[in-house]
Amino acid sequence: MKITKFRRVLTVVSTLTIAGFSFSAQAEDEIKVGLLATLEGPFTVLGQDAIRGAELALMEWKGMAGGKKIVFVKGSSNAQPDSAVNATRKLVEQDKVDLMIGPLSGSEGVAVKNYSRTQPQITFINGSSGGQETTLVDPSPNFFRFNLDGAQVMAPLGSYAYDKGFKRTMIIAEDYSFPYSQVQGFMSGFCKAGGKVPKKAWVPVGNKDFSSVIASIPEDVDSILVVLAGADAVNFMRQYEQAGGDKPFIAGSVMVDQTVLSYKGKRRDALIGTLSSGWTADKLDTPEWNKFVAEYRKSFDDAFPAPSFFAFAYYSNVKAMLEALDQVNGDLSDGQAKFRNALQNLQLQTPVGLITLDENRHAVGPAFITEIIKNDEGDLVSEVVQTVPKIDQKLNLSAAEFDAMGIGSRESPSCP
Amino acid sequence: MDIFSQIRNSSQWVFYLFGLIALLAYPSFANNFFVFQIGALSLILGMIALSLTLLAGYGGMVSLSQMSIAGLAGYFLALFGESNAVQSLQLAPIIAVPAAIILATLVASFFGLLSVRTEGVYTIMITLAVGVATFYFVQQNYVIFNGFQGLSGILPPTVFGTNFKDPVPFYYVSLMCAVLAYVFVVSLIRSPFGVALQGIRDNPRRMKALGYNIFLHRIVTHSIAGALAATGGVLLAWFNGFVSPGIVGVDAMINILIIAVIGGLNHPIGGFVGAVIFILLQNFAIDLVGSDRFRLLVGCVFFLIVIFSPNGLIGVGSKILNWAKKRPKASEDKMGMEVIKVDDV
Amino acid sequence: MKIHKRKVSAIVYLIVLALFATFAAWAITDNKNLFVTVSMNGLTIAALYFLVAIGFTLIFGLLKNVNLTHGSLYLLGAYLGYTVADLSGSWLVGVAVGTFGVGIVGFLLQVLVFRHMQNQELQQALVTIAISVILADLMLWGWGSDIYQLDPPDWMYGAVAIPVIGKYSIYKLFILGFSISVGLGLWLLLNKTYLGVMIRAGVDDQQMLSAMGVNVHVVFALTFAIGAAIAGLSGVIGGSLMSITPGEDTRYLLASLVVVIVGGMGSIIGTALGAILIGLSEQYGLAYAPTYGVIFTFIIMAAVLIARPQGLLGRE
User: What is the ipTM, given to two decimal places?
Assistant: First the structure.
């Protein structure tokens, strides 16, 4: 009896000890980069595409940057902030990576940014997370982000929609930070132009039943801004159609993807002309974008028909890291000071255009207003109607104007 | 009853002493990652699992809401103590920590009140429902719990120049709490209260006939287990630095059950053994088998344990040893069967 | 004592009814159309919850087996139904395969796992949790995290004009009717058929039934299969109303749990009552206090547990 327990404890302790000492050796001419994405849980598929984006960038550099071999060490989270921090901590403190890429989603981003403050010797570069708070509230000096947030990409749409004749719109969006920022982006321009938003319906996350929300849509609005992720949007449209609704939609960035556009319902044609705004578009016909899509398709057998936003964001962020490493010849000495300086001043050419960083180390870059059209094959695709080359995190407003509004929330902004 | 005499047996203390020395010396030979993310987290989750062991192993009430209590304690800590939450009262830790634990304990007592009038499997159903409702509640309530985002900026205090967020001090705080909780539970189950509790587990009708108030006994056990889980929850909030709905989600609730059952419900050490195994798997599965099928792996381990070794890994260990000694039956096994079998429902 | 208790509960029921009447009066004057539509939505969702929960309560009531894989079986039915409907192009084939496929899974579970641990309720419950963890990950593996939508046949798809509300979804009306017929059918099966007689006899006295030459194991396995098949069926029905995603297993397991806790375990009418209460409160919550729908549900459950731990219509 006694012996059993004693041995058991001994085994546990010795397992821990052995594991605790097992540091892997690292070659001199190698840079270890932690690559964190959601490789478990419901976002696994997106995480895998994010990894493809990162690998695509590294392939373009043939695995070398600044004269050193770049080695990815993968970490996995389940899209929850605690799991993202735990995986990052393992990569940084146990696997001893030199640089970090990640994470994928908004609340993970905030948590990893907070963790980055406790590891000032490591440079953290974002993956695809797009929370406004990450770089607007208490930004961390060693956290860099080369993709736009949810509010930025929607910012040009408000005034454009107003000019197109939409004056009163109702908002139907999921109840968490990403839709808040999308709605803020839209409303910042829409309210300023004179539009009114009499009602916002924040639908609980994961709710699939929109029927009662649909029943509460006021008669006197001329459009509905829908910020729901791809298939939830289909769900919404279907229920809206079944309830006999007929108001036009304005769409959030994540709504205009092929999941939604290949929707087979009878109201399908009613989607033609739907306005949206986002990071890119199906028919963004620039050589850079076409090349990126072609490379992506060529490099992976099991990939999506076109790179997802996550692949694109991870690609951009990894590309930024590789370019900066080239500029400093792989020199990560002196607390990575030179490298960070190079990142800060990078003029990053991404597949959608030029991205630079602001003083909070957050991206300033292009957004695209899109409209849904029917192409020759009869498919619905999004086409760019206006390119806005440069949007900053304060939505091109003055600091005072933006600060009066604050970060997007349920109440702010407001123009009933 | 022989387990009690074993504990009193003086040579048992040698085992405890060695264990304690090993745990105390652990930070001197492990790196920060192992001290903090493996060591401290195992102790914390072990404590929360210990609260379930007390309820399930000794009270016959398998409660899935222990993680909800722990999570709520973290929320209360963020609301009372220093954090980024606008709703926070920003009280000093010396007030905020006890307040959070007490309030979470009250919630646990209320959950207990809801579930104790029914028996056996009903407890699982009700606590599962209550726990999931808690998850949806914190996720959808913005006024207090800040919804999907949760509350952040929860930091452990700095006392006498020691920052308890640093891995080694934090480990020792966790260790202290875990050891106290362990000693407390071990002595509780030897006390008249604990013995009565086990009597209620095995035969509630007889105990009722003997004049025991079985509802009250059960509710008090829920409160005690709640206080243990809440203490773990406060440490967990410090560990993460934030609380969010995912911390009280269904997966997290079931993880605690898995930890307790894998370790073994028939001894207070089970929760800690289970936690160490679980956390090592969670951290290193990605290096061994890739991470995408982590839950499948854990689910299968859990399934096999429930089917073949109701006493968890402790049971497996003693079975192997007994087999080696060619002793046909061990006392522990009998104990374990009682844990799983609810007679008299 | 008994009479006193009854008086108290009568008063409580009256107060609850009065509160609801006040709310309804306010809501009707505020916007009659909205209130009626939301009430209809509440009843529709109640019908779906009833359909899911009835299999759960059947298995528990008759086999004393708390089957926490019920949500997983729902989701499995939905995925199977989707895949088959997508391949065959026929919704009805999807319904059939979802129902029978999950029924077979349930049969196998009973024969391979639960039969070997009869009368060990707690162990059974733990095993069902383990199986649902495994099934959840297997389904994530097989179908990924994409969100699937099942399309009901065209004739059920659109909206139809009905009094007061205006247009209302035909499919939702179908769910209402379908649910009621399944409830009736189950009642008839248990009370008016030979199989039903055997099932009930097996529950009351297993050994006697066995002595009479009936294979009790087969009867129990069939019961479990029927309960599971209904879960699979409701998966296809529910997956055509809303969508199919990972996580729905928990959602519908919770719905079943709450419905039977409120209504009373093992009672068909209790399950219907519980489903109506939960469905209505959830929809009123969504429409009138959008973020607190779940809280109303929880308050109802807590109140019932305090007042009547066995559920509104559960046997003492």
Answer: 0.86
